[in-house]
């Protein structure tokens, strides 16, 4: 691989790192708007919607013709938007500004994710390198989430739950976004292989994206992606609140300990980058789903009767705070594996519109999962909210079975 490709890979990693922190701060912000602004659980859950519906809407609109804009230019626009939004957040504050922030982050991530996924096809040489790089970049996304928990918790004032000092973190995030902008701006990217034909109508691009939905393999993949993200985001977005309101841990510690989920997911994806080169993806993912369901049944009962209000740090935290987040190890390989499976089976010119469909339905899954979990959390409690994950895990196992059958049939026809 030449030096130019290594440089663009570094840029893609940093872009993903920035958005990992911003996107998955939604769980922390959900907790903080409850503390600062007296917002209920079900009302706070709409922050996920502002983020994910923006992702879905923008992806649907631009994915089919993003090659006209250019992958690099689209990513630069995205980084510029989030830098500005981060600078506004501490100066305006309030629940309304939190909604606008996540709408801006969602809009920008739509451009970033479609561009990153499509760019991977330009800078990797074969299917094995594609799936490996996809796993590594998704694992680095989890590293960003992990760092985000500690960055945000460092700005939280446990002595004063209503303090808005945590908003100062957005100045730091604006700085990181600007550095990512400068790195990408100075990095060359050859997009000649996917340039749109001169004179081709924009509606034709859109029709081609919708045409992908006519393929049964793509439809089953979309169901799988939707339910995976529904599971992941329902747990990730509500874990800080679970730690705080069910386990009674202090706010800063609740946020920090949610990082276990990000760490376990990052480890799982790094490991998947190695294992998936040797073991069939369906065998790996089926085993992971069985293990994830078993962990839910074992871990959630550990939270019964726990009162961590006197806990002062990681050393005396209850066992439940450590065990349940380990579900990330088993969920980790699923998303990058199925994304790579569908993208590497399609020609490079369809990667942008297919990436758009991935982003749209992933975003819808994330919003659905967070709102359902928030509603169950408010009316039935946190333990029942997390038991809910067993239902989409079962649906996902079924859809992956069908997806595997269809993929094998498609590969035989190539």
Q: What tags apply to this protein structure?
A:
414 residues; mainly alpha; Growth Hormone, Chain: A
Q: Summed up, what is this model?
A:
77% of the residues lie in helices and 0% in strands. The chain is mostly helical.
What is the element layout, followed by pairings?
Layout (H helix, E strand, L loop, with lengths): L2 H21 L2 H12 L3 H4 L1 H17 L3 H4 L1 H22 L1 H30 L3 H27 L15 H17 L16 H11 L3 H30 L5 H7 L1 H17 L5 H19 L19 H5 L3 H5 L2 H10 L7 H30 L1 H6 L2 H24 L1
Helix pairs in contact: 1-7, 1-8, 1-9, 2-7, 2-11, 4-7, 4-18, 6-7, 6-9, 7-18, 8-12, 8-13, 8-17, 10-18, 11-12, 11-17, 11-18, 11-20, 14-20
Number of domains: 1
Shape from CA axes? globular
* CATH architecture tag: Up-down Bundle
Number of helices: 20
- The fourth-level CATH homologous superfamily is MFS general substrate transporter like domains
Estimate what percentage of residues fall within beta strands. Answer: under 5%
**SSE topology string:** HHHHHHHHHHHHHHHHHHHH
Count of strand segments: 0
Any idea of the CATH class? Mainly Alpha
Question: What is the helix content?
Answer: over 70%
- Radius of gyration, whole Å: 21 Å
If you consult CATH, what is the topology? Growth Hormone, Chain: A
Measured distance between first and last alpha carbons: 27 Å
